Protein: Hflx-type G domain-containing protein
Organism: Brachypodium distachyon
Amino acid sequence: MRAACYSSFVAAASLPLTSTSSAASDPRRLSLSRSSLRCSPLRRGGGGVARALDERLLEAAAAAPAPAEVEVEDESGVTEVEDGGQWEGEGAEEGVGSSEAEGEQGQRKSKRQQQQQQQEEAAAAERDRFKLINGKEIFQEKTYLVGVECKRAGGYDFSIEESLKELEQLADTAGLMVVGSTYQKLSNPNPRTYIGSGKVGEIRTAIQALDVETVIFDDELSAGQLRNLEKSFGGSVRVCDRTALILDIFNQRAATHEADLQVTLAQMEYQLPRLTKMWTHLERQSGGQVKGMGEKQIEVDKRILRTQISTLRKELESVRKHRKLYRNRRQSVPIPVVSLVGYTNAGKSTLLNRLTGADVLAEDKLFATLDPTTRRVLMKSGTEFLLTDTVGFIQKLPTMLVAAFRATLEEISESSIIVHLVDISHPLAQQQIDAVDKVLKELDIESIPKLVVWNKIDNTDDPLRVKEEAEKQGTICISAMNGDGLEEFCYAIQTKLKDSMVPIEAFVPYDKGELLNDIHKVGMVEKMEYMENGTFVKAHVPLPLARLLTPLRQQVAAAL
Ligand SMILES: Nc1nc2c(ncn2[C@@H]2O[C@H](COP(=O)(O)OP(=O)(O)OP(=O)(O)O)[C@@H](O)[C@H]2O)c(=O)[nH]1
Ligand SMILES: [Mg+2]
């Protein structure tokens, strides 16, 4: 029953398409237009991994005994009572017979009551699995996690246990209920099933014992591996991988048009290579007589998907152009931009909120922020800078997501300073730093000055010792939560900004007073002298403003 309902869900939901069950090859799914996919209430209700409320309710209703059957049972109960009434009369004569009948009847009754109670409890437990996440109702599917530790070149620094722990956090963010996990050490992944056959059997047993509905692998699986695993685990269990899970979280959290476009594009790109051989059932249905039918259907689907991908790319391009235009307009007032980057959950949004009084969602979930938010920060010195909050990074970040979010991250490449915020209280802080540096390298922005800042100092066991260590490394410690170290943070930004500015001396006539304002706002004034026809100013200013001031810089010698 679940498999049947799930078919219709996958067909209606968008293209996270983590499943390769026969349902996943439903032709209707691919013929859906993207706009209809985006508007689908099922997609709104949680995307591919977490199922929508309506679907689950239908399913739960179907799984529960039909009301008509309950009535029949009740009717039979009533008949028995009536019979019992007759027996009662007879029993009054026989005495013992009556109490025996009553006992039997009572036993039957209590058994029925017990069954009813069990059913009610099961229904209540089922209802409890509907959770409200980000204002969306999500059904907490029972999920089992699987990891593989491989000896591979350029491996990640996260151990398999740590990586699985993070996968559990991701599953929790997606609204899933993790009921167990396992891992295997392999020299090389099995090309058919990723894990060995013994492990497949072990997981199958766990699926049955724990009533698992979804199995998530910690690494990206091929279409063939997904299909083979799903077959081995039994039709109703869904198998997906870390990438699909991350895409699903992004899908759940995309709140703006641009984020929505980016996530849909990434999902389609993830899906494209996984369409291969999903139509083999057509070959089987046709009894082998209409050869190549499935093959043709894949081609049709791929073509549809490619067309949708290219339409999406064009749409994204136009959004990007618009964003660039906006950025250029913003740059005509050359306020320096400081970008906040860091591992997901490091506290970037909390810091932005704390410094600017913004109202960006900050919560103890992974990928709370998908869209860059920029706010103005006014320092005590009077200097201003723009602070941009960006999407968090994660180890094993799907490459299509990095690519899809490149436009968003372009903001970073045009900033004056990059602040790499680290959750220093996290046991894997160093590994997280390495993962972020890896993505930053991919973005080719190493020439921009970087400031490493340790956050959540309040959450460490020994803040004093951590601060000492930070000092040794030339790093600042802050608590975005309670505001500790924020003055030092602003001072460090100011110093770094100054390093990236040009020292100038200029004579600003009184009728060009607005330029003096700009110097104050975006630069750092060291000396100012009011003279007869204007003001002499010595300052550090950003390059664009220094260029703008060129004629006035040349007048200094004449004025003095
Ligand atoms: N104890 C402590 N908790 C903090 C601090 N800063 C942030 N947090 C908490 O850390 C969690 C994540 O904070 P966010 O600001 O959402 O993190 P983020 O880096 O924006 O995360 P993403 O948007 O997912 O990339 C929230 O529960 C915050 O309350 C801090 O200085 N101390
Ligand atoms: Mg955030």
